[in-house]
Every structure is written in structure tokens, then in C-alpha cells.
């Protein structure tokens, strides 16, 4: 933790809360009484009692719930969210995203409200990395803050003053609110953070209760009389160490941190599914829960040691299953190796018994115990939470992952959400949190600056972005020169950033092996030729997107209709529609593959090369379509706007309009991009563009329809026509 930044954040938080609770005055909107019982009650009714169970992002749901509220309730909501967001470092949420959330909420008020500069500066860097609660459960944290502040502002004034001066009385009040709250496990991190924000001299800057326990236990020798109260004991420990070492310190600095924080595992934590509801016809899960283990059968295979190598496992499987096909042997060997050597202590594990989902933590290496029979002999020690969750209450991504038919499946991308639901959020590492695909997807709103840069209306662009976000696949189609590829790339960069936007171009010889994965030759030793399975741009995009599941990744497919789409996409047709399902790819039959929700696809389609009508129904159902035509928004008038922006003559726009008037066919019209170049400022430049680009295009389009294209569409002919046109 950055101690200096923590002091700044605490001072700002104290200012906001103290002013609000004691005077009712807003810190964001001077003169507005936002911290009142009426405003708090309104916020409680609209947000807490009107719980939104949809899968939309927090900010989208919040807008539905409170955007029609009074100014007082809206500003109060923003100031409570400020308390929630301000401590978080950029590793948890970027500074831009913090203020995007706050500015969005404040924009719902009837007058302009901004976060004051001093408070904005205090919140910008943050000081702490948030855990799962701060990534996925902002609704619970926000509801806790509403409940607590609603209780505070209703106390008599002298009691409010007393509570804000007495850290232990404030803690007891906050604890009482938490105890009555159904989402208390998801809001507890906010509770711990708020204690530190308001009373940094008493409470430790620790948001995870498990870490508080570890700190107290590690330094128990500094306690003269342990109280059993975590916060009081840690406070006493801090005072003792400060007296010994002559000043303030942090439990997150050395040499203190290594005394209480467990050493990191040999590799990043992972999550696993192990099936046990039908082990050789027996439901093993009750025994697992009672005796604290999990197991796999494969009873035909002999005993293997913990940490066995892949080759050892393969040899044992070959001996135990001599008549099995090689494919089955490979699958069994892979499953056994995972259990014996792939799992590690500290990994999280889940199992499913009908609708019930149980989650636990692996606590030891593999061992062999056949006391309950060989089917349950191959074991791992597990500390289970015996209270099940309902499968139906889980995020769609988690439900999909639990459907795998394999005995063992990897759940790393959803295990954080499962562990949190089971009350084990404190066991989840930052690496696993970063991979949690159940987190809400952060898709930034387009700005007026972006629209102005494209010379296109913001409304049309935002509607296009919304279609892409909703459908995940979008095709921009239109005649040549309408800026399809340029717009697709710029839109991708605006939504995902340049580093998360990639482009591939289809062509008639493009196939599945080029796009997804396929075997490619390589030169081996002694000049021999071998083959490697090489991922294509699509699989590379998926791999990149999985590393940041809350950020979009955009793949632009230029000229998407020039390839045989059924051949290129193959089994991915299914995933384009069912994002939460897993399938086996034809070249990787032993590795489940899914298309993450944060992979967006933007295709471009030239309506001259091949009509949109020829796209098959399966493809059309999976993509949203957006037309770019010279006679329709946002392309109509684009050349005029560009010429005016560049302070160039409008003649090129008049020429383009005359060409398209004569063509009288939107699908074959000439787009403006041919003329969006400084060369159009001179007659010579126009002549070169006409001769080298526009006339060849028209000759190709009008082949067999017009005998002499130049006689009707040549530059001199059009200039003469414009000269004869009444102004």
C-alpha cells in the first residue's frame, strides 16, 4: 500500500462523510442538501428494494433504477459511489473508468455537477487492489453504503457527532447494518475499507477478513491480553510495534508482510471441476464432504505417485487399458495427470450434485486410500464449504462451464465467482480475479470528440456500438468507398483500444485452417518435414481476450463475404450464437473451446462483389447488419463535411453527387473516400483520380449496360453538366 496516498484518500473520505452526515450538505454540489432522510429513503426504495437481477453492467442497471430520481438522491448516490471507488488502485479499476462512472451518475441530475478538483485528485491514483467484491459485487457494496448512511442521517444530531468521533461505536453500527443485509458476504470488503477510510489511526488498511486473522495470529506475541476481537487486537499490535520501532509502519511492508502472508504457490492458482455424483454407480459427494477429500476412479489403472510425469501416467494407462482406442487412452491419461500433478495445494475446486454446487480448497498432494474401495482410492485432501449453492443462481458463464462431461474440467475463468458465492472469496488470488469472465464487461461510451474526428453523427455511431455490444457480431456493408474498413477499425479502437483490435482479410482461398487453427509444415532435423498445429488469427484473438475478460477485444474481418463462410467458420457458427457453451474443435478434440463474451467481430462487406442477399440464413441470424450508403446517414454529406473541414472547394462533392444521381443505384454508388484526399484541390488531381480509380470502377460495374462509360461519366462531361446546372 502507498501510505502517503492512503492518507490523502482517508482525508477526502472523511471530509465527504462528515460534511454530509453532520450538515446534510453535498460535497459535489455546494448548497444542495443531499444527505437527508428523504434522499436516503428515495435511494433505498429505488436501488435496494428495486433490486435488478439482470446480467447488465452495474452502471446500466443503476441508470434504470435511479436516473429519474430527485437531484438530491442522484448526488447522494454519486458521493457514496465516490467512497466506493476512490480507494481502488488502477490495477483494479482505471482512473478514467472511475470518473466515467461518477460523471455518468451526475449527468442524470437536472443541473451540471462535477467532482471538485481536490476530491478528484484524491481519488485518482487509489491505494489498494480490490478483491472479488470490488470487481463483481459493486451492487452489494453500494447497497451497504446506502443502508448505513440512511441509518446515520436519521440519528439525532448529537448521536451523529458521537458516532463519527468514536471508531468502535461506528464499527458496531456498521456491523449491525451488515448483519441484517442478505448480501453481507459480498459487502464485507466495503465494510472493512470504510472503517479504515474514516478511522485510519485505529483500523488497519486491510479489506480481506482472512488477512486480518493472519496478521493477528502472526503477531499474537505482541498482545498482552488477546480480546478475540480482530480489530481491537490488531490495533493493540500496531501500537506495540510502533512503540518498539519509533513510528508508523504498514503490515504490507517488510519485514512485517512475510511474517503473516502465506508464500505464493509454485504457479498461479487455478480452479477445477471434479465430478463425483456417479463414481462406478455411487454418489461419492456426501463422503467427500464428510471426510474432506475428492477423488477420481479410473480403477483399471494401477496406483501412481503424486506428481507423476505425463509419461508415467501414459504408460500406466496403456497397461491398464490395453484394448482401448488411442483417443480414449489419451483422454484418461490427461485426466489422471491433471489430478495427480496438475492440481496443487491452494487451488480451488468445485463439484456438482444435481442442482447443488459445492466449492472448496485443495489442501494437500494426491494420495492413495482404498479403504472405501478402489473407485474412491485416488484422493486429494479438500477443505469443503458444506453449504451448497443452487446451480440456477450462478452466472451464465459458470453454469456453462459446469456442463462439461469430463471427470475433470478447468474452471479457472469462473472459479472466483463460485468461490465468492460459497463464502470463500478470501481464498481467491489476484491472478484468478483477473481472469474472472463473469465480471461485467466494460464497454466505454463513444464521445463527441470521436464522432467529430470521423465527421459522423454521434447518435448513429453509438447506436452501431450498442448493436455490436448486444449482438457481439456486426457487418458493415455498402458499395466501394464508403469507409467500411476505416470505420470498423476506428470503432474497434474506440471500444477496445488499438492494442485489443486486430484485422484479418478474407479471400476466396481462405479456410478454417487459416482462420481458426490448422497444421502447418515445418522443417525438421535432417531436412525432414513435420507438421505443427498453429493457431489462426481467430484463436489468437480469443487467447488475448481471455487475459482481460472485462475488456472488449475486437476482430475486424475485412471483405468477409469473399470467403466461403461455412467453410471458414465451421463449428464456430454454433459459438457465435451460444457464447457460454463449449465445443471441441476438429483439430483439438481433447480441449474444450468457447468464444468469450468480450470478443466482438466486425465484418465489412462490399455489396458489389457479392450481394448481401446471398449470405445464408445461419450467418444472417448471428450478425447485426449496418448499411453504409452514399445517400444515407452517416455517409451522405460526408465528403462535403470533409471538404469544409479541410477548407477545400466543394466541387468534388458536387461531382460525386452527380455521378450517383446518374447511377441511380445505392448498391453501386460511388463512395466519398475516393475523393477524400488533398489531391482533389487541383484539376490535375481530380483528373488522375477519375482516370485511375473512378472510371475503372464504373466500367466494371456497368459492363454490358453502358456502351461508353466515359461519354456519360467522364470528368469533362460532369463538369460541363454542373456548369449548365442552375445555381
UniProtKB/TrEMBL annotation:
Q: Which GO terms describe its molecular function?
A: hydrolase activity
Q: What is this protein called?
A: 5-methylcytosine-specific restriction enzyme B
Q: Which Pfam families match?
A: AAA_5
Q: Check the record and name the PANTHER family matching this protein.
A: 5-METHYLCYTOSINE-SPECIFIC RESTRICTION ENZYME B (PTHR37291), TYPE IV METHYL-DIRECTED RESTRICTION ENZYME ECOKMCRB SUBUNIT (PTHR37291:SF1)
Task: Provide the AAA+ ATPase domain boundaries.
Answer: 470-633
Q: Known InterPro entries for this protein?
A: AAA+_ATPase (IPR003593), ATPase_dyneun-rel_AAA (IPR011704), Methyl-DNA_Rec/Restrict_Enz (IPR052934), P-loop_NTPase (IPR027417)
Q: Which UniProt keywords apply?
A: Hydrolase
Q: So what EC number does this one have?
A: 3.1.21.-
Question: From which organism does this entry originate?
Answer: Nonomuraea coxensis DSM 45129
**Into which EC class is this enzyme placed?**
hydrolase
